[in-house]
Specification:
- The protein is an alpha+beta fold.
- The chain has one domain: GIY-YIG endonuclease (3-Layer(aba) Sandwich).
- It is built from five helices and three strands, in the order ββααβααα.
- It has a three-stranded antiparallel β-sheet with strand order 2-1-3, sandwiched between helices.
- 18% of the residues are buried.
């Protein structure tokens, strides 16, 4: 009897809110998470109706939990201008700051 292993990866994402601000997060099911946010089932958005609907601006899928956690913390530490750059380039910066941030975790 063969055993099926379920490969679980995590996603790190940035959504652009209706007011122009950004919200970053990590999850195991990105589509479900975006739906929860738009239906205001996510606790952060329950009391903030002016932030929805959101649009997915950037994401990276199928990464291990620890890497997703560190990248999510990195996204949270960025300024709006830095987040705009990641969205525009559709990739992570490869500079010293990301490597240094990752090494500290």
């Amino acid at each position: 009897m063969a055993v099926k292993l379920k490969v679980v990866g995590y996603s790190v994402f940035l959504v652009k809110c209706a007011d122009g601000s950004y919200y970053s997060g990590m999850c195991s099911d990105l589509n479900k998470k975006v739906k929860e946010i738009n239906y205001r089932l996510e606790p952060y958005f329950m009391s903030r109706p002016t932030l929805v609907p959101v649009t997915l601006a950037f994401h990276e899928d199928h990464i291990p939990f620890k890497e997703a956690f560190v990248k999510h913390k990195y996204l949270r530490a960025l300024t709006k201008k830095q987040r705009d750059r990641i969205i525009r380039l559709k990739k992570w910066p490869l500079g010293k700051e990301l490597r240094k941030f990752i090494e500290n975790y």
